Amino acid sequence: MTAGAGILATGLAGCTASGGSNDAEPTNGSGNEGANGDGPAVAVASFFSFYDFARNIVDGTSVQVSNLVPTGLHGHGWEPNASVTRDIIEADAFLHVGPGFQPWADRAIQTLEDDDVDTRLINVREGVELVDLAATLDPEEEGVGEQQGKDPHFWLDPQRAMISVDTIAEGLAELVPEQEGALRDNAETYKSDVLERIDQDFRAIFDESERDAVQLAAHNAFQYWGVRYGAQMEPLVTNLAASGDVKPSDIAEAKEFIEENDIKYIANGVFESRKPAEQLLTETQVEGYFPVTPYAGVRDDWVENDWGYEEVAYNINGPTLEVVLGTKTPEEAGPDGWADEWMNFE
Description:
With about 350 residues, this protein is α/β, with parallel strands linked by helices. Helices cover about 40% and strands about 10% of the residues. The protein has two domains: about 5-195, 3-Layer(aba) Sandwich (Rossmann fold); about 205-340, Rossmann fold (3-Layer(aba) Sandwich), CATH 3.40.50.1980. Mean pLDDT is about 85; it is low at about 1-30 and about 240-245. Keywords: Signal, Transport.
């Protein structure tokens, strides 16, 4: 598939999602029971991307999967109420991103261990090789958990994401061994039909560009694209969680980077402040900003349209990469009307 054909592909995933809980209803009548023997097995996820991987893995089985993070939130700096911990305790499995990335998830896991709760823990980061933190990070950034000095946003690399898909399938198969064949088959299908295709299409976008530099008016979460596809992803907000103010020196460096690389369009986080991007529009040669997201959350309209990792790749991140890398004009990128909706979005 060519990059252009890939980026225009939409609506390819068949699973459902609803609101903040994103409950995936069982799709057959096999009636396999959860660990407590009181109905279908239930898995809850601490992060949208891995919820979406899981719901594709359980498609056609009676396993139910829910996303704990409400619509519109990342789940990284979010502080849930006690009902979320209760949902985890009552679930048969908890999908999490490993220690150090989501403090609330770490506390929930500690509660499970302290109270000897038998909820199965599935660490989606297990077995993934993380890259070093970007040199552009503030000195205070220390990485995640037991892997200090490492960048946690590995799932942006489809090849690394495949490792998580296998980990999720294996964890759920141990939970409901009678469904192992279907779970593993679904995982293989998702890897080959979705993640492998995204990887190929994104590589084509980077390979077709004469520029290997992208300016982001967003937080420092996109290094894995640079590592995977051989480009410099230059963030304006130089911390992992987009929680700090933009310093004048950061603006000055961005202005120089934009000038040196003849950058016309930049990328801005969907769930982040527009102020830094608007400042670059005012103070540099940049003509517009377009949306980008580390697949960390979803908007209401994305939920309504049943968007997952795949749809966000092809409707948000892919078209923006085409524009900011200069392989397409805004009018040529994305589905019809994409530029009208997303250029300098509110």
